[in-house]
Amino acid sequence: MTEPPAGPGARSCRASLVYDESLTRYDFGSDHPMNPVRVDLTVDLARAVGVLDGLRLVDAPDATEDDLVTVHDPALIEAVMATSNDPTKVDLARGLGNDDNPTFRGMHEAGRHVVGASIEAARQVWSGEVDHAANIAGGLHHAMPDRVSGFCVYNDVAVAIRWLLANGARKVAYVDVDVHHGDGVEQIFYNDPRVLTVSLHETGQMLFPGTGFPQDSGGPEALGTAVNVALPPGTADAGWLRAFHAVVPPLLREFAPDVLVTQQGCDSHRDDPLAHLALSVDGQRASYLALHDLAHEAAGGRWLAFGGGGYAVVDVVPRAWTHLLAVVSGHPLDPTLDTPADWRDQVAERLGVRAPSRMTDGRSVAYQDWSGGFDPDTWLDRAVQATRDAVFPEHGLDPLM
Question: Could you count the other beta carbons within 10 Å of the beta carbon of residue 216?
Answer without folding.
Answer: 19
